[in-house]
Design goal:
about 525 residues, 19 strands, single chain, 5-stranded mixed beta sheet, 18 helices, 7-stranded antiparallel beta sheet
């Protein structure tokens, strides 16, 4: 396929707000892709290079735009090979070689194609083809149920690979994606609930677990080999030898477990999340950090044991396997009840031990990797949302020279992008302001007066009193008395809360007439 065809599709998707029109345009393009270019095309349409971060910035890209083609001729395969060569250029003189290869690539691209490639290379191509929309487009193009595409994606973790399998081999191709120990899957996610009464109204009888303020981990074991993955599926095994040793001693030969890792203070209370996160991603001084901040795993789900996949089993069955495979000292405290009084007593126990609150889980639900649904509910005393920083304003007075007032947005999976919900400058220490300013400037994409617009990558946990209707924001809602709790380096923007979640919170707050 010529690149121009893909660029036209990208433009069509960006110019419509209709989800159905986006899906139709993407599906039509997918049907035209030859099998060997499906993964390239799907990657580009979802805004990423197959090579990942190739180490080139806007300045180098701009310097390569000396000439352009009058007519389109570049194919997707040629573009992919060029970016592969640019990624492979290392060592002395590599910058000059990269620039020369970029110049040769851009000289064969039209002006519109150059703009597309530039935004793609720096991660700023946001035409609304989010993964959820692409899943539906793959389903339409392959004439397979979207549920089967989502299941394959859950196991593969890569929509481009799933698209190729579906479009070339149909249902047989999707069947090749299986849960495999030592290969991570996306974690199941939760939605907020007001309190235990609301949770039980939805679930009737539920498994309540401590909601711990730790680092989400997924641990895999095959024999003595253990791998530990973060919430974003990064392999952090080398950073956490104490977790590895615990998992190695479990009697099962093969396991995939979901859970949290916590570091505790000398008084037995858990350290704040930011302290625990010091252990993750560290390659140097691991032994010293282990001595200073030892980690304890708390497992709450079992996805696989000794050749048997459990993700489609009801939660109650998975928990029985977990209880058999993992000693109680390393299981998240749990109670199964239909009683609001018992659940409230359990919540108070969790809070008294320094934890955030409770998780309430449906006992008949499968493990829906990567999905945020009503089978898992999180219950906290304060209202909190994980939102994305869209921009920040320069401070004044004591905060002169620091980026202070944050513009906050919720994810919009239906239309793509983010919906702004308000601003806050509260809850920030001097140390946080200093770090925040450096990090946001590194993500800067534009300025407008005192406002610095940034790539929507940083996730921040925001506490707020309530929500109010507001004509000033496109979503019609605004946060009241918002304040920063912490940044979430363990989450990407894809893990931020959605505008649907925010609207559901507002409906519960305002009463049944708003539902």
């Amino acid at each position: 396929m010529v690149l121009a065809d893909l660029v036209r599709t990208s433009r069509a998707v960006a110019e419509t707000a209709s989800r159905l029109e986006k899906i139709a345009a993407l599906a039509a393009c997918l049907r035209r892709l030859p099998p060997e270019e499906v993964e390239i095309g799907v990657s580009y349409l979802t805004g990423r290079l197959r090579q990942g971060n190739i180490g080139i910035g806007p300045a180098l890209l701009d310097s390569a735009r000396h000439a352009h083609a009058e007519a389109p001729s570049l194919t997707l395969g040629e573009v992919d090979r060029a970016f592969g060569e640019i990624q492979g250029a290392t060592g002395p003189g590599s910058t000059a070689r990269r620039r020369a290869r970029l110049q040769a690539l851009f000289a064969r691209a039209t002006t519109e194609e150059q703009g597309f490639l530039l935004r793609l290379a720096v991660g700023e191509l946001r035409q609304g083809a989010l993964e959820g929309i692409m899943v539906d487009a793959v389903a339409r193009a392959s004439e397979l149920p979207a549920s089967e595409i989502r299941r394959a994606l859950m196991l593969a973790g890569d929509v481009a690979r799933v698209a190729r399998a579906a479009l070339t081999d149909g249902r047989v191709g999707l069947g090749r994606f299986r849960l495999t120990p030592l290969q991570p899957v996306h974690p199941m996610l939760a939605t907020p609930a007001e309190d235990v009464t609301e949770a039980l109204a939805q679930l009737q009888r539920a498994g309540f677990e401590y909601k711990m303020d730790g680092a989400r981990i997924q641990v895999h074991k095959v024999g003595r080999e253990v791998r530990v993955f973060s919430r974003t599926l990064n392999d952090v095994t080398a950073s956490v030898p104490d977790l590895v040793e615990v998992i190695q001693e479990l009697p099962a030969h093969a396991l995939i477990l979901d859970g949290e890792a916590l570091a505790f203070r000398s008084d037995g209370l858990p350290h704040p999340f930011q302290v625990t996160m010091r252990r993750f991603g560290r390659k140097l001084d691991v032994a010293a950090m282990r001595a200073q901040l030892p980690l304890t795993p708390f497992l709450f789900d079992c996805l696989h044991r000794d050749g048997e996949d459990l993700i489609d089993r009801p939660s109650e069955q998975r928990l029985a396997v977990l209880d058999d495979a993992v000693p109680a000292v390393h299981r998240t405290p749990r109670v199964v009840t239909a009683s609001p009084t018992a659940a409230e007593d359990f919540l108070q126990a969790a809070l008294s031990r320094g934890h955030e609150g409770l998780m309430a889980k449906a006992l008949d639900a499968p493990y829906e990797a990567g999905r945020r649904g009503s089978a898992w509910l999180k219950i906290k005393r304060a209202h909190t949302l994980d939102l994305v920083v869209l921009a920040a304003e320069w401070g004044h007075g004591r905060r002169q020279g620091w980026l202070s007032n944050l513009h906050l947005g919720a994810r919009d999976p239906e239309r793509g992008g983010f919906v702004m919900l308000g601003k806050t400058f509260k809850g920030m220490t001097d140390a946080l302001l200093e770090w925040q300013t450096k990090r946001l400037l590194a993500l800067e994409i534009a300025r407008e007066g005192i406002t610095v617009h940034v790539k929507p990558e940083l996730v921040v946990e925001i506490e707020f009193n309530d929500l109010q209707a507001s004509p000033h924001y496109p979503g019609g809602l605004a946060l009241r008395f918002a304040r920063v709790i912490r940044y979430r380096p363990d989450k990407t923007a894809d893990h931020a809360d959605t505008i649907e979640t925010v609207r559901a919170l507002y409906a519960r707050q305002a009463g049944p007439e708003t539902v």
